[in-house]
UniProtKB/TrEMBL annotation, chains A, B, C, D, E, F, G:
The keyword Methyltransferase does not apply. This is Co-chaperonin GroES. Belongs to the GroES chaperonin family. Pfam families: Cpn10 (PF00166). Heptamer of 7 subunits arranged in a ring. Interacts with the chaperonin GroEL. GO terms for cellular component: cytoplasm. Together with the chaperonin GroEL, plays an essential role in assisting protein folding. The GroEL-GroES system forms a nano-cage that allows encapsulation of the non-native substrate proteins and provides a physical environment optimized to promote and accelerate protein folding. GroES binds to the apical surface of the GroEL ring, thereby capping the opening of the GroEL channel. It is found in: Cytoplasm. Keywords: Chaperone, Cytoplasm. GO terms for molecular function: ATP binding; metal ion binding; protein folding chaperone; protein-folding chaperone binding; unfolded protein binding.
């Protein structure tokens, strides 16, 4: 599996045309729209001035909204993932 | 519901043509005008140098003025919201 | 009333054609000229590295000079105001 | 009188064509040339990381050299001044 | 051998056309795709504000994913390497 | 005389065509070449985060090499000087 | 001799066409290729936040690889040198 570094997070993208129950409608053709995904791995946290790491605010399994054109796409074991920094995560869906 | 991260805030936009009582007139056609909205969720705060979080200055339910073209729009449960950083909030309406 | 956030200040603009007594002549047509105004509200201060707030140097009622094209204009209760950061204030008129 | 904020300084410009005794020749037509002036007011100092203010290095009455196109010009009581940041002052003339 | 400085890492590039077992498919023609490689040397770490060094998160022998156009290519003893900063490493492959 | 502020240094330029003994040949026509000069005055030092000043590394009388197009030229008592920041000094000639 | 300031280093360039034994082949015509050189002098170190200096990681006599177009070339006593910042050094050759 992939282990992201620092404040990076790995997300499995949710198809943007689907409408999740009580959820977010994100037509696939609309540009500059936020995107929904599921967190599959989180880094060990951003480094503070004193050299310690600050744990991330999101956890494995969280459903998150992020800016569609953030991060870098990778393909691993046939699945596409997005490696993104925590600061590009807009909100967690509860 | 949506939970914003860090110093982000979720705002429900107020229609810009309406005039609130004793309030702000913001014609919808005017560009670069500030916009009025209601805070529906706030993040856990910006991270300080020592790794602690500083609570935000705005609270749920506050009426705020923000720069119209700040943040990212999301649609959730049929309502449009704006996810914005606290630094893009100009003032609270008392 | 409006309460500015952080290091922001709300100013009521003084008509630029008038000449205040022993004061500043600022012809309205001249571009890139500084502008005179009166402070009507101040934020709770800029955030320091340790998370505390540093009180602002200007107070309600101060007459100030600021750069004409700084800040954001808002209309509230029929009066036009400017929301501006303290760092865009050039000087206080005593 | 005008009281500059923070690390700002108010300067009364010296005519650039004149040659001060044993001083600096600065032909008025030359562009990008440094300019000579007299300090008439200084701010309370730049803010340090801990929130305290560091007093400025220049004092009222100092003759200084500064970059000609720095700062903002204001007219007050019929005299033209320049409001400039301390970091735009190049040297003090002793 | 080569010893990278600070937060730099030396990577031996893996041929991008090959498909590692249960691994990442990275067609060589695709631009802006992440790239897989093996860490062959790591620097002594980034410098913290207090002058100490923070050890790197990756170790010799790690398989890593990095942005294809990061870093600087060098040839040493007939082998091509990439010298890259740790912040350009996206994830470690476990 | 001129007293530079902060981390600034005043340099008297050495004619670039001359070849100092056992020294540096800097043809005057070559662009983007470093330049040799003599330090005639130094500022009180750059300000540290805690508000104290760090003394400069160069001293009055030092022969230094600096980037030709750095700094600001001033004429004082008939001599041309360059006011330059310490960070634009490349090396001291011993 | 030349004494570099701060985090600067003086390098004597190695001819890029030659192949050092068990070393690096760097054809002179290739652009944007890293370059090999020998350190002949090092500065007293970069300044830390507390005003102290952090000693450099490279020492006199080290063979280093650096980015070809970094730094500033100077000629001294008939030899060409490069004055470069430590952060532009990619690796030390052991």
């Amino acid at each position: 599996m992939l282990k992201p570094l620092g404040d990076r997070i790995i997300i499995e993208q949710v198809e943007s045309e689907e409408t999740t129950k009580g959820g977010i409608v994100l037509p696939g053709s609309a540009q500059e729209k936020p995107q929904e995904g599921k967190v599959v791995a989180v880094g060990s946290g951003a480094v503070k001035d004193n050299g310690e790491r600050r744990p991330l605010e999101v956890n494995e399994g969280d459903k998150v909204i992020y800016s569609k054109y953030s991060g870098t796409e990778v393909k691993f074991d046939g699945t596409e993932y997005l490696i993104i920094r925590e600061s590009d995560i807009l909100a967690v869906v509860n």
